[in-house]
Amino acid sequence: NSNITPLDSEINRLYEQTGDNRIFPKTAEWSVKTGGENKKLNNEEYANYQKSMGGHAYILINSLQKSEKYQNTSDEAKVNMSDDIYQFSNALAKSELFGYDIKNSDTYGKIYQAYKQYGPDGAIAYLEEKNALQNAGFTTGNKKAVEAYEKGGEQGLQQYANDKLRANGRLFLN
Questions:
Q1: CA–CA separation, 86 and 128 (whole Å)
Q2: Cβ neighbours of residue 48 under 8 Å, at least 6 residues apart?
Q3: Is 39 helix (H, G, I), strand (E, B) or coil?
Q4: Which residues of 5-42 are buried (b: 16+ CB within 10 A; e: fewer)?
Q5: Can you give the pTM of this predicted structure?
Q6: Contact criterion met (CB below 8 Å) for 128 and 71
Q7: pLDDT by residue (tens digit) across 145-173?
Q8: Residue 132 near residue 142 (C-beta atoms within 8 A)
Q9: Count of CB atoms within 10 A of residue 3's CB?
Q10: pLDDT digits (tens, 9 = 90+) for 112-150
């Protein structure tokens, strides 16, 4: 089919390599929780929700796939970051259309802040940092690991991880 884009090809390649269906874009739900209550959507609300969610996902996935760090990461990490984008796009659409408080969300507050300040590339940089931290066995809540990453990138993070292991007597090499 001549309508297959490089984005489509990469999604298909990742599915073939990993078998993980989280790589596929999500469809909107027919009900959303707003103010603690489930709201059933009519056709127009659903269409707007899907359009918003899909639009954000498309822009963010394109930015992700163009990033240098994405090119140099594992297929599993690519699927994880793509899934994070789909979930974030869903949260963005809910915040725009249904009043979801994304700014103060424990799950999406930090990526939203990066997105608002720096656009799609800010959100991608946040996800790349989160991915690097996870690969090294840390969370985004580990301030020292985050500082090590922000100062020295993945090498700085690896150095921090090695220093921590060495301090615990678990690393005998390098």
A1: 15
A2: 97
A3: strand
A4: eeeeebbeebbeeeebeebeeeebeeebeeeeeeeebe
A5: 0.83
A6: no
A7: 777 777 777 776 677 776 766 665 554 44
A8: no
A9: 5
A10: 999 999 999 999 988 888 888 777 777 777 777 777 777
